[in-house]
Amino acid sequence: MSPYASEGFNNPTKETSTIDIAENSANDHESQRTSTSEEQQGPSVRVLGAVEKFWIFEFFGFILALGSLLAVIAFLRVYDGRESPEWKLPVGAGTYRKTFVLNINAIISIFTTTFTSGLLIPVAASMSQLKWVWFQQGRPLSHYQAFESAARGPLGSVFLLWTLRGRRLACVGAIIVVAALGVGFSIQSLVIYPLRPVATDHSSIGRTNVYYGTDDGLPYQMSADMLGATLRGIFQSSDPSEMKYNCPSGNCTWPEGFTTLGICNQCFNVTDSLQKSCSTADIEYVSPTGDGSTNSTASVPYCNYTLPNGLRLDGIDSGMSTGILNSGNWNNSVHFSDNNNTIGVLSSIQSKWTSSPSEWQDLDSGMIYATAPYEVKATECGLSYCVQKFNTSVLRGALTEQLIDTYVDSFIDAERVAAIVFHPPPSWTNASENDSANIYVAGAVQGFRQFFSKEFSGQKNSTVYSVTSSDSDFAVISADWEFSNFTDLFTSIAKSMTNSMRSSPYAELYAEPGMIWSAIGVSNQERPHVQVRWAWIALPSTLLGLSIILLLGTIWTTSKEKTILWKGNSLAAFAHPLAGDMRDKISTITGPREMQQEAERLQVQWLKTDRGYRLVPPKQD
User: Fold this and answer.
1) Given a cut of 90, is residue 313 above it in pLDDT?
2) How many CB atoms lie within 10 A of CB 315?
3) Are 522 and 541 found together in one domain?
4) Region labeled Disordered — which residues (predicted)?
5) Which of 75-89, 315-329, 571-585: highest mean pLDDT?
């Protein structure tokens, strides 16, 4: 008799024989029923059998997961870089009609759920099938529960990884189940929504092709607007007036940039152009003595300094006095006399002490003339009409204008023509301008020259004791300036005058057809956009690849080991129960903990007996 023949319970012999006869009769009946049923199988049964045999449902799950992942990728590629979309979904009718709003995350969550569901179909089936392959060798009965738990969820998968120490194909499935917890997080992290500007309206800022800068009937008189702008540039150089603009959203750009008529400035250090001539002069002074005072005469050296335009600072002694001489005469200037487009020039000669008078010990001594060092410097700055190109933007209501290029035509004789015409190269002006929109300037050059000649001319002389003479407020202000101060001043004047020209009402009034007096830009609002971080696709892609490896590996192992294809069918436990003697060991157990402890001690093997496949004690080699 086979060692596995006695599978009955410990009952009296008569009852056991009855059970054996019944089992034999049942087996004979089952054989007859199986033979008959195989002959009478319909198409639906054969289809279901093929689905199980060829793992069609598991491959369907893999294809479902693959399709969901590809759908996410395709969906996000369409909207990557675009404004975040929303879809309105009306539900119901009449007063019960509601509108639900779907966004990208809602769509992604649907695909994520579908992906995870499809992914776990082949994984769960493979792990369940590998359980039967595992027990074809002698294993603890507790491993049966470990496989069952692993196929149901991540906690059981962790226990299976620990049980098998990660060295079996089933551990790949356990890793997938655990890692699948992060699929939702990973796919949702694919998308972020940075705020980016979106054009919602037009913006505008002043520019001009034409400027008539004189008052009516006064051809050489600056207009009141320009006079005010120029004075602001001179006396408020730290805060020149800002250009007015129209920006509805507070965030605007002018993508093409734009050109406008304006005022350009330059400053040069012309100290090297000074001509120096020195001599001595006898001066009388009162010298204190022990008995009173004595009139004395001293020979004092002095120098005269002259620029090529004739500006001359006379009688600068070796330390007793300092001074500044300014001229607004643009003729014969070092750098601007050849540019007939110049509207204003400042030539300045300065003499300055190089040490403080407070450091001199004897201001009454004649030696003062020999011990107080000084220096003489010359500066020349000019203003001229030009065409300017700007990059302009408004961010949170703050205007930023960057001057990126200038065009100056120096072959203009403002004294002999009524109007000045600039002809910048067509490639230099912005594309939005009409080709016929050349830059025009009416004859206000002489008015500017007269103003600056009067405003900039003047002199200030100082001694160690006091200011001896001054005939100009500007000379007093600029007496102690450095070169950078002159540069800042003329930059401020040029900017203030340019803004006045761009804002002038004459620009639109006298504009010819084709001229543009406002630069049109776009008004932007910050709105969320879709930005895809493709690195986050790595986790679901990896899990999908592991799942097909697991599925194909399970199919190959099942075929190699000739294992019955049970997969996760719960009825398999009834078809392949424990052998009778092992059932006796657990028949009195009433709790799961006690059962777990006993299962860890029981070694079982899934073998074919004369009664079919059973979980029996391991076969001894």
Assistant:
1) no
2) 15
3) no
4) 1-42
5) 75-89
